[in-house]
Amino acid sequence: MIEITLEKPDLSGSVYKRTAARGVILREGKLLMIHTDRGDYKFPGGGVEPGESLEAALRRELLEETGRELLGEPERVAVAHERRRGMTADILEMDSHYFLCRVCEEEAPLRLDDYEAEQHFAPVWISPKEAAAANRALDMEANPWLEREVLVLEALMSAGVV
Q1: What are the residue ranges spanned by the domains of the chain?
Q2: Is 3.40.50.720 the CATH classification of the domain at 2-158?
Q3: Is 0.70 surpassed by the pTM of this model?
Q4: How many whole angstroms separate alpha carbon 122 and alpha carbon 120?
């Protein structure tokens, strides 16, 4: 399993901890990713709710963001540990678990959160190289999650997972 740590030095203050589950869905050399009006690409997924397992969160988030149901058993292929400046607290500590998985062909209507709808979240099929290049071209300081997504994409490509 791939493990990535992103830590910004010299952070102090209140800490908000979060755990997330994200899907790595590959078909014919392309990944199913979420494209936003900012021009970035992210793995579908999101935060684990209280009392929810990683797999249950993955299943829920995939249906909400891609309209597709998870098929079979997902395989955890990577985890990214982040410690960076936060929005709801001084520091965000987040563990993002990435699962190689399959989804059904049929698409249900998306069930996006308000902020996701405002950013025009849209599921798209894109090559890993194109997604990484598009994200690298954007402002990582303004969009700190981009660094995580680029590093995970590059690690998955390097390991031959995608």
Answers
A1: 2-158
A2: no
A3: yes
A4: 6
